[in-house]
Amino acid sequence: MLNLPDKHETNIQKQLFEGKRLIAGLCASWCENCESWQIVFSSLSDKYPDYCFVWLDIEDHPDMVAEVDLDILPVLLVQDRDNILFLGPVRPDREVAERIIQSTSSTMQVFEPGIRDFLIEGCSFANESI
């Protein structure tokens, strides 16, 4: 399922609190590459239901993406609870995206942009014991 922060906030928070891998597409409505990427990204979200796919429009959520270099769009973020596996621009190519999403053997040494924390912030069950 492709989650939108404004429409699926509770679902996003629940999945991230459970520790699901975050797959975030950072795009803009004015970006032609992002149009193509959204189609690919949405189909990947259907194929990988065990991951939390979030579509972030950088114009709608500038505070959420303030720490990310957005000179080239679209940008893909793949993040486990503790590690960023990928953060960078991507072409809207399904095969490349799948390889990045499925990767379990690498982490990137990059500045933590705080997107995962921003999405889970205020989660009503975040203070409950597991």
UniProtKB/TrEMBL annotation:
<feature type="domain" description="Thioredoxin">
    <location>
        <begin position="9"/>
        <end position="80"/>
    </location>
</feature>
<dbReference type="Pfam" id="PF00085">
    <property type="entry name" value="Thioredoxin"/>
</dbReference>
<dbReference type="InterPro" id="IPR013766">
    <property type="entry name" value="Thioredoxin_domain"/>
</dbReference>
<protein>
    <submittedName>
        <fullName>Thioredoxin</fullName>
    </submittedName>
</protein>
<dbReference type="InterPro" id="IPR036249">
    <property type="entry name" value="Thioredoxin-like_sf"/>
</dbReference>
